[in-house]
Known about the structure:
The chain crosses the membrane at residues 21-40, 66-86, 91-109, 115-131, 143-161, 404-427, 448-464, 470-487, 494-511, 517-539. Residues 411-533 form the Integral membrane bound transporter domain. The protein is mostly helical. It has four domains: 1-164, no CATH class; 167-376, Up-down Bundle (Methane Monooxygenase Hydroxylase, Chain G, domain 1), CATH 1.20.58; 408-538, no CATH class; 543-753, Up-down Bundle (Methane Monooxygenase Hydroxylase, Chain G, domain 1), CATH 1.20.58. 80% of the residues lie in helices and 0% in strands. α3 (43-52) packs across α7 (136-163), α8 packs antiparallel against α12 and α9 crosses α23 (572-602). The longest helix is centred in the C-terminal third of the chain and has 43 residues, at 711-753. The chain is globular and about 100 Å long.
Amino acid sequence: MRKYLTIIELFLRSSHFYSGVRLSFAVVIPLVILNFLGLFEYAPPIVIGAFLNAPGDIPGSLKRKVNAILISAGLTMLITAIILFLKPFAFILIGALAIISFFISFLSIYGFRASLVSFSGLLAMVLAFAIQKETAFEIWSHVLLMGVGGLWYLIVSYVFLKLAPNKDANQLLSETLHTIGEYLRLRARLLTKKADRETLMQQSIVLQTQITEKQETLRELLLLERKRSGRSHYDEKQLLIFISTINIVELIEAKHLDYSEIDALFENNKGYLKASKKLNKKMGNHLITLSEILIQKDKIPSKDLLLEALQKARGVISTYVEDVTLPKAREGALILKNLFDYQEQLFQEIRAIRRVMANVKHASKVSVKRQEESKFLTLQEYRFNVIIQNFSLQSTLFRHSLRFTVAILFAYVLGTLLGIHNGYWILLTIVVIMRPNYGLTKERSKDRIVGTLIGAVIAIGIVLVTQNTIIYSVLAIISLTMAFALIQQNYKSGAAFITLNIIFVYSLINPDALEVIQYRVIDTVLGAGIAVIANYTLWPSWEALNMKHVLLTMLQRNTEYLIATQKLYHDKTEAELSYKVARKEAFLAISNLNGAFQRMTQDPKSKQKEYRLLYDMVTLNQTMISGIASIGTFVTNHQTTPASKEFDTIILKIVNTLRAATAILEDTNFTEEVSVASESSNAEKKIMEAYQHLSELRDRDIKEGNTEIDTETLHHLQEAYLMANQLVWMKALSENLKKATLKYDAVLKERMHA
Length: 754
């Protein structure tokens, strides 16, 4: 029971619910005030204007919010005027419908916020069919009042932002901490669940993508806006927590373990891994608890359980050495030690978050300098040239716009010919659920239909019990709030509340509510069916065909990240900024690759071309970025010896191999010097010999009875082990990645000539 109460409390305190309240306030207040003044006939267009301009009001900088709402207001007014004026001219109207559908949906090329402005425009196009205005004066009056509604919503949004300026950032920080906590718990299971690893790895792909998306929005919220307006003490706290989440994610990615090696070493001794697994789970759970406290403002829990788990994980290393004995235990002990070091660093980041949340004085300092902040922001390009570049069938969004336009025209003509009651609901369903890729459209169609049926059943029950208009009014407001609060988090639930809202609003106008419910369900099913069929048959965008560009970008970013890490090893002070920027770009690239692969898995099985090869390439890229992060994290957190010539030689070999793989996808020539290959083989031998030499020195100490090891020697041994094994491993990875790329390129060329 307590768990459910916590879930309800977190929802009611969330920015999602706050957004629902904000929209309801913007919609209800004009109705109440104008009704009180006896001017209720002016209320509907103002309410429509407010409602249509809410989608673009998403977390981000104030300037971008204002621009999005103003552009949305102008766009919705223009589209509404065009549709209303052209209604009497059927053929011209169809032409206008086609042009608006295509070009407004095509605006999505400018990013997520632009796609929401586009959605507002398309929504205005559909709702215009529900508006009955005969004269030019009536039309212009309606359009101008819609503009007033848009400005009214802008004022409401600004006031709500000032009342709770940190709500969006807090919510995103909370969700980021929660998702990272889940990711840590999943990584704990990966350690010992050999049979489930592939499934768990696919789940980790989803979580990684979610984390990166949230962190990108947080960058805009915490860096771009604060750069313009300055930072308060609370802003500094949020930025510190955000920086810790970035460090935690890098640490997690850096510890991409060679599970086959772990299975071989601990096949019959998995008990030695249990302490590390338990520590990961406890840290994951602790992050989830902190994510809830960030919203609830409760007391920070004790860290005693974490300290106890950390101590047990440390103790297991000594136990393992005693049980297996040196030198046989060295390799396993170094793996356990490296794993413990990584978990100890994770604990320190969690502790840093705890200190910030507990308002510990001088807990930490913000490490991002003002002049460097822009380097960490991913700015959307808004030039007209972007349209030109995407204006071809090669563009996924161009094909989507064509597909969407045909679906809208077909639905409109079908509804007109069949005389379907409220036929624009079919168009509305298509606008709401149709997405560029088939899998998401199919999923949203299913959720929309199920949500509509659930909403319809609930509405029928309420309508049969009462015909009280006051109850309908109250339920309409509540359902609107809940619909807008849930639509991004749980589409099925959001669809149910949208259905409830529409039914109760229509029930206030039309006493025959059951008829409204019947048409609502039929039109939703028709719209969903048209959307899915159109996605499958008209210029389909199967994700497998779009993977080449994403893979190419990933190879380029991994190469840049590796070079930046090499420079960091040589000079931490000078190369730190470029390293962090390269790391951010690489993590964004792997998130995009993971997202593309995830979308591919939602396509029909017959369209998942070369699934196994692409899965291997995603995994190889994921492993490569983890290998690079492993070196970068070690260099950042330890006092290292000077980078050796052998290190640079092997890095050059890996870089050349990655560039060769890039050239294959770009269909260009890249010739590696023969000497680089031979020099890297010699460097590989020398770097392994350096580790073996340190190991032999340590063996000699043990034989002489010097079982204790000083910190400096231990760190040198760890560094030698990490660099030797990691570089050899990454060199093999890069070669496997090149082979896989060759195979993938051959498949693409074969497909083109088929």
